[in-house]
Each structure stands twice: as C-alpha cells, then as structure tokens.
Design brief:
Two copies of one chain form a homodimer. With 311 residues, the first copy, chain A, is an alpha/beta fold. Chain A contains ten helices and twelve strands. In chain A, strand 11, helix 9 and strand 12 form a beta-alpha-beta unit. In chain A, helix 2 runs parallel beside helix 3 and helix 6 packs across helix 8. Chain A is globular and about 65 Å long. The interface between A and B is large, with 42 and 42 residues.
Chain lengths: 311, 311
C-alpha cells in the first residue's frame, strides 16, 4: 500500500507543496517560486523537479507514492485540463497529463478554490459536513461547492465561481471577468477597499480610516474599534455578501458556509454583518445553514490537493 | 427480476399515477383526486389503494414491483420525510415510511420539482445531459439541479428552490415564502401577469393586451403577434430570468437549462428573451450552456418518480 501523497497549491507568485502520509498528516511543507515567463512553460517542470527532489531527499520510492494532487488558479475540467489560467500565462493545458509525464506519478488537478474547499471539508472548518460552500475572500472571491462530499466541478470547470454572481446592476467598473457588478467587486479584499474608497469620498464623519492607507484589515480593525464609518462599510459588505450567499443557498441548500481567505482574518466579526443579511434574504428552509471560519489558512490548498488524490 | 414500477406525482388538486416497466415505458396512466381535508390524512391511504387496486386489476404480484416513487410539493429530505407541505395540509410527515407501510412496497420520495427534473433528464428535454438545471415556470417557479445525474436535495430538502432567488430589491409585494423580490414573483405564470399588470397600468401605447384578460399565454401570444407592449413585458421577464439563471450557473455551471411548466408552452420564443440576458450576465466559462424545452409536460413527475425507484 502506497504511503505518501503530494499536495501542490499553484499560485501566481509561489507554489506551495506538501508531503502527506495517506492519513492526512503533514510530513513536510515547502515553497518554490512560480516562474511565469514564456507563458509559464517552466511551471510544471519546476513542480515535477520539486516533487522528485523531495522523494530523493527522503528516500521515497515511486511505488510508495499515491500520487500528486494540484490546485490551479483557473477552471479545470474533470480530466485535469485547464482552458486558460491568466495569472500563470497559460492557455489551454493538460495539467494532469503533463505533470504525470514529468513525474511518472498519478496526478489529479482541480481548480484552486475548489481544492481549498475540499481541504477545509477534510481537515478544516468544514469538518463533519458533507454539503457545504467554502467562500474564499482573497484578492478575488472564490468558491467551492461541495455536495455529498464531492466538489462540483461543473460543465466547463466553472462550478463554484460565486465571485461572479451578478449582484449590482448599476456598477460601472469592469470586473476581471469582463462583466459588471460581480460579487467579488465588493466582497474580496480589493472589493472591501472599493467600498471603503467610495464611502470615504462622500464621508463627512470622523473616522479612523484614511484614504491613503486602506485595506480590508484596516476596515475591520476600525469596525472592532467601533468606528461608525467602518461599520457602515461593513454593513454594505455584509448586505452584498449575505444576499449573494442566500442566492447560492437557493441553488444547493448547504448545511454550512465556511469563510476563508485574507478578509476572513478579521474573524467572527464578519459573521455579524454577513449572517443577518443571509437570514434576511435566504429561503426559509435554507436559514439553518451555519457559518464557520476556515482554519487551514494558506494550507487548505495543499490539504485539498492531497485529498484529491486520496479519494 | 422485478418488472414494474409506479410513479406518483402528488399535487394539491390531483394525484397523477403511472405504471411503468423497468425500462421506462408507460404501461398505464391515471389520476385520482387529492383529498386535502383533515390535514390531508387520506392522501397517502388513497394513493396506496390506487396502487394496490391497479396491481389487482393487472394481476401484478408484489414480487414483480420494484417500488413506488412519489413526488411531493414541499421540501423532502434524503429519507423521504417532509417537514411541511402547505398545499396538502401536511406538517411533518414520513412519506416514504407511511406509504411503504400501506402498500408493503419499497418507496422513495422526493420534491416534486426535483422529481420532474429527473424525469426530464431521463426521458425528456434533458436527455443526454448529466449536469443540468430544470426550471419549471408554473404557478410558482421550481427548479431541479442535477449534478452528475443526481438531483441535489440539499441539507433540508430545499436544493433547487431557485424560484426564491432574490432578484429585485425594491419589491413591496410579499412572495409566498415571506420574502420580497423572489424570482418566482416575475418569472412564474402569475409573475408574468404581475409584470403585465404593472406595465399596463402606466402604458399609453396601443396593445392587444387587456387588463381584464391577462395570462402568461396572452402575453406571449401577443409577443408572437409583434405587440410592442407585450414585447416590453417579455424583455423584462427575460432580463430577470436570464440574470437569475446566470446566478445559478455561477454556482453549478450546468451544460443545459431545460425550461418547462405552463409558461414554457409559449415555446422557443421564450429563449429569445432569456438567452440574450443569460449571455449578458453569465460568467464567461458558463456561457456555453444550452437552452432546451421540457417535453414531458405534466408527465415529467410520474417519469421522474419512477426513475427515483429504478436508480
């Protein structure tokens, strides 16, 4: 029986790698740089080398490795192919096939947000739930929809792209996806800053917030200090996100929402603003859903990637 | 090997029943009245009698029956229990358990819209797709979300309740669910009439539509006759529904939407209004989804109910 599994979380700047035993214990964890030059042609060879070097270092034999799971920032289909991953310089790529050919190991690939969701379900804030939605409030807003323990990939790998729920008709700024008024334009770290800038542009009240030093952290720190303006921004954030999650619930009716990503470092104060709006807009039978914080942080991706292969 | 299966579609006025062979061919089809008096206590005994009488009439032995599938107007959990079904007078009820005790046959129960969705996937407009959304535009708006061939029931049986997506903030009329601005307030048969009434109240143009004789059929008949006012109503309907379905797509990224229910009798003219708005609001990777008409009509429920048991 194979004893080891590699979990890889491929980001636009760094690649996080984890070596796990097949029970899910972390044996080693490290990072390499993501080399995006020349349309990212070095990325998969670099990852393969990192894996093979680690096996050499630890004297691990190929037959003792279950495989390599990898999470990628882009829509990935059930066969481990991506159609485009802008942050990596990639167009269409057979990730699973290429990485398998470089390593000689079984490979499974998934969308990074979906994979992180699986990690949180397995060993994180969603442990014990089988029907959940993991919401990652980072630079963008990612989602992972889990139904009966399986991530919903979707027809073209865009399952759980809840950052692109249309929520505001009047928006004039364009979202990264080309649409206008997507959830991630307000509920991501940059989205909270957008809401804060707009508020401060018309604000006449005294506030701890300064236009020159705005961040999601600054906003929620000020909320915790009872800053009236910051609280108004948080109310707006919570109204938009709570309403968006109520829409998600009308589709899949989850047991739990697990909130992660940089913005979630603010902690459970977020729930004060999200939950009341969720309750207000959700279909009555969906209101029992609980809100949990993600707990694996940046490691959710490597856990979930490992879990991809173990399944 | 068992040869027969019963599919039951339980509505507020009539119960539709179908006798199928286990390949899905309809052998018989009939209806009985739904007796909702005394909190609907007679409904399941009546259904059991209808099934047992049919078996006697056709000289079918119990050992030759796979079971009875039943679709119910309310949220049904994975064990076949309903928490409430207002139209039937029911509170909490163990449908599968009770009907099994009355018939001595295996029973599976599901939400009526979910069950109809399964019917359309099996033998209807969604044949050949495994990831689809069936949208029923009837008195209300029901939905069935199918992922990898299985209906999403949800944590409390409210999976696919897309009629209760919140779509309009300004709505003052209350939806049947108690919320305001739900999709079904505009996209159901009564919703189209609501839109039409509001349009006619401020309309100054010549139109075929009359306030005294409004229906979804009248509106789409007028659309087909190039009536300018009816077209404006259809545009509004399409904008709301297309946008709502784009939200659904951001969650589950289906291959296809199958549109059924009374409103869908208008035919593919609906797609002229729904699809362009879907394309406008959908996340780019979700835009390949195709739109199909449901084809089983009122029989979708008995087909899907039978399929529940065959699975």
């Amino acid at each position: 029986m194979s004893k080891y599994v590699f979990g890889v979380d491929l980001g636009g700047t760094t690649v996080k790698l984890g070596l796990f035993d097949n029970e899910g214990a972390v044996l080693d964890k490290w990072e390499i740089v993501t080399r995006t030059e020349n349309n990212g042609e070095l990325i998969l060879p670099d990852i393969a080398k990192a894996v093979l070097d680690k096996m050499a270092e630890k004297s691990i034999d190929k037959k003792d490795v279950v495989g390599v799971g990898i999470g990628v920032p882009g829509p990935v289909d059930d066969e481990g192919k991506v159609s485009v991953a802008v942050n990596l310089g990639w167009g269409a790529k057979d990730i699973a096939g290429e990485l398998k050919s470089y390593t000689g190991l079984p490979v499974k690939a998934g969308n990074d947000a979906n994979v992180a969701a699986l990690g949180e379900m397995w060993q994180g804030g969603g442990k014990g739930f089988k029907n959940l939605v993991v919401v990652t409030l980072g630079t963008g807003v990612g989602g992972g929809i889990i139904i009966n323990g399986k991530v919903v990939t979707g027809a073209t790998g865009a399952g759980g792209e809840i950052g692109h729920l249309h929520v505001i008709d009047e928006e004039e700024e364009t979202c990264g996806c080309g649409n206008h008024g997507c959830l991630e334009q307000y509920a991501s770290a940059t989205g909270v800053v957008r809401l804060a800038k707009r508020k401060l542009a018309v604000n006449k009240k005294v506030t701890l917030l300064s236009e020159n030093d705005l961040s999601a952290k600054a906003v929620f720190d000020a909320v915790k200090a009872n800053d009236e303006v910051a609280i108004e921004i948080a109310e707006q954030f919570g109204e938009i996100l709570g309403k968006g999650l109520a829409s998600v619930a009308a589709v899949t009716n989850p047991e739990a929402f697990v909130i992660g990503g940089g913005v979630s470092k603010a902690g459970t104060v977020l729930f004060d603003y999200i939950e009341k709006n969720y309750q207000k807009y959700a279909f009555p039978s969906c209101r029992k859903a609980v809100f949990k914080l993600a707990i694996l942080g940046n490691d959710a991706g490597i856990f979930g990637a490992a879990k991809l292969v173990i399944d």
